[in-house]
Amino acid sequence: MKITTKLISLLLIALAATMAACGNDNDEPLPQAEPVNIYPTLPAAHKRVSSIERTYANGVTAKVDAGYDNAGHLISATMTMDYNRGDLDESVELFYSRGILRHKLGWQTTDYVFKVNSYGAITSLTNTSGRTIASFSYAGRQLQSLSSSTSSASYSTLVGWKNSDNIHSIVTKTASKRDSVVMNYSAPLDNVALVDVMGMGRSPFGSLMELLLRSEGLFGDVSAQLPRTMLYGNSARVDDNGDMVMARCVLDFTTNPDGSISQMRFTAPRNADNEQITTLESYTLNFSYR
Hints:
Layout: H1 5-18, E1 49-56, E2 61-68, E3 74-83, E4 86-95, E5 100-105, E6 108-116, E7 122-127, E8 132-139, E9 142-149, E10 154-162, E11 166-173, E12 178-184, E13 189-190, H2 207-215, E14 225-226, E15 229-234, E16 247-255, E17 261-267, E18 283-289
Antiparallel strand pairs: 1-2, 1-18, 2-3, 3-4, 4-5, 5-6, 6-7, 7-8, 8-9, 9-10, 10-11, 11-12, 12-15, 13-14, 15-16, 16-17, 17-18
């Protein structure tokens, strides 16, 4: 099945509509919660990302830009993705003094009360009606699990770590489906700038937004090394024995002189006729830093 620009746009519009039950009007005043006084703890080697741009093989592009305060803390992220009907926008604003995270997806705005742990990683997002729509658990600085829900489904994600400092697997389940990603670190490449290239599963945010928020410590540590291949599968595709069929994807990196990533190329498998054999689409990520 080939992922088209039209299909991507329909999926994103459906996601925006799903979030509507939790939303607030753009004109409503920002609600007040308890101030959050702890910012993410970032290692000395960390390089702050200014933007991440993703270009799919089918021509669809998306770019997320980061905004920082004078002390260098991430306080905003804005993403625009093009598709055949125009642009789809997504943004996050962090109001630490009010304990509020404002998320905009398309025409829908949702305000969340957010809580953090002692490392500044977000532990919960609660809407202004008092319903927790996402919670995150950690072991030290490492994300272990997340639970999230929309008006139509609930998601449970487990994050497996390998060799104590690399993410090995991300498994997300619903009542009827399971998605699995397994990372392979053969011929490892050090993640010098400590940026995220894989996301964290099903959160309230789009995948490109996840990469930026994760890279800035809002959901704990990222892998110390970069995976060279990933295996993707879900419960909709099984073999004759009932085992999940895993698609092997290849990651190639280009680095800056200091070893930080400038580009990542994600190649999804294709058949002998050069047709996609899964719903995965090949893409390229370009990273810029402050």
